[in-house]
Design goal:
By secondary structure, the protein is mainly α. It contains 4 helices and 2 strands. The structure holds zinc ion (ZN).
Length: about 120
């Protein structure tokens, strides 16, 4: 029994940590790519080609490269503004006037009521 334990324990002391570190290093590219849209592709490359050093390097570079975010995001276009609200222009002086104002705040010219 004593002989068995002495033979067995060093193996278990060493093994789990070594395995965890090795696994982490091996799957480091996939870990780095976990939030990417092409994570699956990187993971598969990592899994199947990672044991070749060059495959691992490719997966790592891929994981670190900048990605175009999956589906093209609509550029945050502001909704089309109604033309009047607070910004139509005085016909006399060309300065912007408050919506609904009867007279230009800059030059005092009477504003046409049709401006809105
Ligand atoms: Zn004016």
């Amino acid at each position: 029994m004593m002989f068995f334990s002495l033979w067995f324990v060093p193996f278990f002391h060493f093994h789990p940590i070594f395995m965890l570190v090795s696994l982490f290093l091996y799957f480091l590219p996939a870990v780095l790519a976990r939030h990417r849209s092409d994570f699956t592709a990187i993971f598969l490359l990592n899994l199947f080609a990672g044991w070749t050093f060059i495959g691992w390097i490719i997966a790592l570079v891929w994981a670190l490269s900048s990605e175009r975010q999956g589906p093209p995001q609509p550029v945050a276009a502001p909704p089309p503004q109604p033309p009047a609200e607070g910004s139509f222009f005085c016909t006399a002086c060309g300065k912007p006037c408050a919506a609904g104002a009867r007279f230009c705040s800059s030059c005092g010219a009477a504003l046409p009521a049709t401006q809105r």
